[in-house]
User: Fold these one by one.
Assistant:
Number 1:
Amino acid sequence: MKKKFWLLLLPLLYSLTLFAQTNSNGSFSIKGQVVDSLLNETVPYVTLNITKASEPDKSVKRLACDIDGRFETTLAEPGEYVIAMQSVGKVSSQKSFTLNADRKTADLGKLNMEEDRQRLEEVTVVAQKPLVKVEIDKLTYSMEDDPESETNNTLDMLRKVPMVTVDAEDKIQLKGTSNYRIYLNGKPSNMLSSENASDVLKSMPASSVKNIEVITDPGAKYDADGVGGVLLILLLRAMRCRAIPRR
């Protein structure tokens, strides 16, 4: 009887142990907002680079703020970290923070960046390429400069692109609407229609993508009148079809 009791109890104890381990080693997260130190205005699309304090040259995660300067992301393990901020026209800055079992979420609050007023005749700048480039009619997210693209699929990376949202059901929206088109290497693609775009992007390795452009004013060039915008996916190597030799 005792033997049967322990046989029934062991799986329960094992499950409780696993739950405790999972609960203590669960994901960690940080959030905050980047603002101008003088004007107290938000700074949009700042490139953020997170490293461990013990390995400052090894990037743990790279991401970009949204249009309001806000960011939120997860980290796999506890430790002492440094978050570096970089934006055109601003002095690069950084802040240290710690994550542990008692502090799984770090709210960094408002992170200040100063305007770069320094003028030199000749200057050499050593910095990482920004993830986001903003132009008048489009925003470009550099996939090849994001280390997470080596292990994620394109749909996962699309969640990091400003102005694009992907919900829990993998439905894609551009600026809060489903009225958009997806182009591949500058041309419309039948396989990336709104019905099956998520499935296709989920099967596409992010490492094969160079850039994702969010075009807010498509114009006549993209034959996209009446749509809210265009998602342009540029591959590192254009897809080619192998010709079948004639016999």
Number 2:
Amino acid sequence: MGRGRFITLEGSEGAGKSTNIGVAERCLSAMGIDVVVTREPGGTPLAEEIRSVLLSAREEAVDPLTETLLMFAARAQHLAKVVKPGLAAGRWVLCERFTDATHAYQGGGRGLESGQIDALAGLVHPGFEPDLTLYLDLPVEQALARISGRALDRFERERLEFFERVRARYLELARANPRIRVIDAGRSPAEVAAEIEARLQDFRNAS
């Protein structure tokens, strides 16, 4: 049995990750692929506890390095217990966010140096990255309008300028890395779903 494939879905709040990871799961399942669907931070009981700490609003300001270390702590547990065992069993792992999100949020958004993030990535998952990343891109004002009617977590309460920096870093990552495919998430749900399905079919045919 060969190794499975690791596919990640990235995007800021409001871009449609939760909806479209379901689209991707259904598409891969229709191809006869055994799929594991998971998310970051989270994916295991311990990592979900860390997620709760990260997302909960609090009076104490969270230092960017502290935030990043917590992200990688959750990631290490997630990789050990879900992602790598799934891939080793020949399953395809479909994950909402991975280290690209850390570069975008803690790097672009918080201003943490890329070298620090790379150093932690080298410790937690040396030589390991997604086989394919689908980045759902959406103008920040449109993205924030989509989430305006719901209870907001600690990240979602950030200012527009923060999300502009996050989006800029995501697009910078996409320009530098051919595994990242940019999808215009401002179109209709059907159009976005159709492109995701086409991207996954192309990836399957090339694998």
Number 3:
Amino acid sequence: MNRYTPSPEEKSYLETYDIGLFPRPSVAADMAVFSILGMDGQEENYRKDPRKSLKLLLIRRGSHPYKDCWALPGGFCRPGESVLETARRELLEETGVKDAYLNPFSIFSEPGRDPRGWIVSHAFLALIDGGRYAVRGGTDAWEARWFCISFEKRLLEKEIRDTSARIICACDLCLTDEEGKAPAIKAVIREQKDFWNHHETVQYDIVEDGGLAFDHAKIILCACLALRREAGDTGRIVFDLMPDRFTLTGLQRAYETIQGKSLLTANFRRKIAPFVTETEEILEGVGHRPARLFRRNLETFYGEE
């Protein structure tokens, strides 16, 4: 990293500058960790073809505030850390997950979002092949668990004029633990989209938090929307949810699960062809015709855009 060298005049200014003149928030990172896992709770195995579901990793908080409530893994930045470094450290400390795909998708800074004070959270998408990890609790989290996640939108109000529009929806968020060791979490978030001269602003407000800590119901919804958007834009993000070897059918199901709709197989395979390479391996040990296994085409992934 290039270091800035101030001029002598600026050095003099900085020596007397009091950064405490302005109130400063604490900075935190929260991670929405997604994986696609078998519906029976078994670990991912590329030689099996079980029914899959999109799952989100939550931790049960071991300390106040919101003690015993479910929340996203996360924590405060330490001196000398970037927010990305904080996200990686907290993810490892609280869940045992490392080497995850991490990408920031939003910042949450609304007043009152945390009872401890003024705290600004940088939220990250974290995508992993969940079969590689036996998640565990740690530090501030005494339990970590995968939840099946789904959401639906209900239109409440729609008004369109010549130069403006307003669309209000209720977003029903549902998180369920297949093993039955935790009750279902149901939250409702109000989404308001305002358009002025065709430019959009969006606001999310929690109607029911479902028992989730802080404003995490809102962060989880925004993470789901960001994941769906990125899967539809370039599609590469979905590969971070897959094992090293996969079938094209399994890959298509992953896209369908994230986007919440069925895709035409011929169109999907034509679009995905540059990103995959066929291997000599086949899917074995299943009750249907053996399918060829594929992997990422690294030339495409690491080539120029």
Number 4:
Amino acid sequence: MKKIAVISGASSGIGKKFTETISEFCEELDEIWVIARRESRLEELQTPFPIRPLAMDLTERASFDRFSELLNKERPNVRLLINASGYGKFEATLDTELSSNLNMVDLNCQALQAMCQLTIPFMSQGSRIINIASVAAFQPIPYINVYGASKAFVLSYSRALNREMKSHGISVTAVCPFWTKTEFFARAVISDKEPVVKKYVAMYEPEQIVKRAWHDAKRGKDVSKYGFIARLQAGMCKILPHNLIMSIWMKQQKLK
């Protein structure tokens, strides 16, 4: 049976870095199925294992049918699933087009859940799932409202799924990065308007997030956070009232 890994959002950012460093986690794979909208970017990926580019838009439900058909046809042993597709918008909820907010939820939540549910029947003892959430998952964030809420879904879903899958020998890790230097900001920031985020307390590199995620996934941790600031923020969100957390955020970013 062919051993494979499946990585969505593989064409850029954290997903790309996972793809490039996958040998640190999986010593033997027959193939990596890499998923993103831009096929040319997928074909350019440099990996230690053969790749199969799957150009798909995971906001379209037809993509799930295509992926399911491929799984049922090939019947692979999926050793690793990484859900790294996602995007955000830094803008007031009512200033963001409804279609954009809906697509954000479709990709960040619906697609991730579908990929897990479709793939798990083809996983075996020792297989792992890594879902990209965010430190934003720990708190409500005005002006990054829908994105933060979608990542809260990813965190909650992943932790609960990890508990469900224990009896099957499958682990699930939610990765919660702080601000990370990726193409995410090109889509999140509205260039012709005053930026919502005016102060970035810290900015990390994708390789830092991924290295920590590999380490935590190997240990079977259900949540992975890189950096003192990320851990501090997540911890403070557990003990401080969320109204206070939101007020601190609004003051820090000079928002009304």
